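ARCHIVE CARD
Drawer: 12
Card no.: 0347
Subject: one protein chain, sequence and derived structure
Cross-reference: see card 0346
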Amino acid sequence: MYDYNNSNNTGVQNYYQNPQQFDPQTGIPINNGPMGNAPSYTPPVNNARESSAPKKQSAFGRIMMSICMGLLFGLFAGVGFYTVNLFTSGRVNPEPSPAPVFEQTTSPQTGSAQGTYLGLDPGIPTDVRILTMEETDITEVVADVMPSMVSITEYYEISATYWGHTYSQDGEASGSGIIIGETDDEYIIVTNNHVVADADELAVTFIDDTEVTAYLKGLEPSMDIAVISVLKSDLSDSTIDTIKVAELGDSNSLVLGQNVIAIGNALGYGQSVTTGIISALNREVTTSDGNTNTYIQTDAAINPGNSGGALLNMAGQVIGINSNKIGGSAVEGMGYAIPISSVKEIITELMGRDTLIEVSEDDQGYIGIYLQEVTPETSAYYGIPEGIFVTDVDEGSGAEAAGIENGDIIIGFQGSPVTTDASLKRLLKYYAIGDEVEVTFVREEDGEYVEHTVNVTLGTRPER
C-alpha cells in the first residue's frame, strides 16, 4: 500500500509525475517509460493459420474424448444389463426346464403371424423361448370348436306343501354341453350332473339356434358328470351339416401358465368365449353337494350357465369340463374345470348305456315298495346311510321277487345314485312295465350295513 507520508516512495512519485508515454499511432508503450524499467513489448503476429491451429486441435480432441467416453459407457452398461439378465432369466440353472413349442402359422383373417401350441420341448430352455410366437389371436380356434358346443335348458317343477296343500311351480335353468360322439342314430353330449339331474325335460340348442329335446343316458353325481343324447331324426340335414364332434385332449400334460379358452352358455344368454391361463392343477375343492374332487383352476371367467361347457387348450382340444365357481362375489378369477383325463373312462361307460326316453305315465313300471327318505339329519341322528328306507313291500311285486325287504335302504337305481323319492321317480319314468332294472340297497347284517345289488322286473302299479 502506498504511504503518502513516506518520502522513500520515489518510484511511485516519479510514475505519477512522469506518466508512461504511448505511441499515438499504435497505442504501444514506449520502451523507455518514465519509470525507467518498462519491459519491452513485441506486437502480436497477424498470422491466421498459426493463431487458429491450436483452437481446432483442441475442439477435435474434445470430440474424440466424448466419443470414447460414450463407447466406454455403452460397453459398461451392456455388461451390466447382461449380468442382470443372466441371474434373473434362469441361465444359472444348469438344467433348464422345458419350454413350450409353437408352430408358426399365418391367420387367413388378419394375415398376422400366430403360433399353435405343440407341447413342451425339453431341449429348449425356457429362457430362450420366443414369446412373440405365443398365439394371441384365437378366432380360428373358436370358429373351429364352436360347432361342438351346445346350450342346455333344464325344465323342472318345484313343489312345496303348506298347511296340507301342495303347490307346484314350473322353473328352468341353463347350462352347457360338449358334443363328444355320435352313432348312427344320435349325437352324444357330455355335461355336468347338476345341470340335468333334476330335469323333468331337457332341450339342447345347437350352433344354428335349432332347439330339440334331449334324452338322458347316464349320471355320475360323485364326479358331477352326465351324458345326454339328441336323436338325429329330430334334426334337419342343414343342422347336421353344422355339427362337429369335439376332440378330447390330455389334461395330464397341462402346465401352469398355459393359455386356455372357456366356452359356455354364460347366464343363459348363449355361447360366449373367455380366455385365461392355468392358475393351478390338482386343486382340491368340495362342491355344494358334499363331493370332493380335484379340479383345474383357471382365471378364465366361468359364470352360472358355463357349467358343462368346455375348457380348451390353444389347439382347440377339450382339456376340462367347466364345473363350478366358488367364493361368490368375494372371489374373482377363480374358475374350476373337471380334468378331462380323469373322467374319460366314466364318460365312455355312460355313453354305452341305453338312451332313456320317457314313457307315458300309464306305461311306467312299478317297483312295489313303500318308502321314507333318510335325510342327512336322520342319517346323522340314527347313524344309518342316506337313501330310501323301505317301510313295506307289496306282495307279489317285483321288489318282493328280487328279495328286497322292509328296513332295506335303496341307494342306487340303474347305476345312478338315488337318495330321495323324487330322484327315484325321475328315473322310473324312463322304464315301462316289464322292464328289468338294477336296484342297489344296503341291509344291516351283524351290526353293519352290507351293500347288495338285485335285478327287479317292473310290474303294474296297483289301483288304490
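Annotation on reverse: The longest strand covers residues 165-182. The chain has a mean pLDDT of 78.
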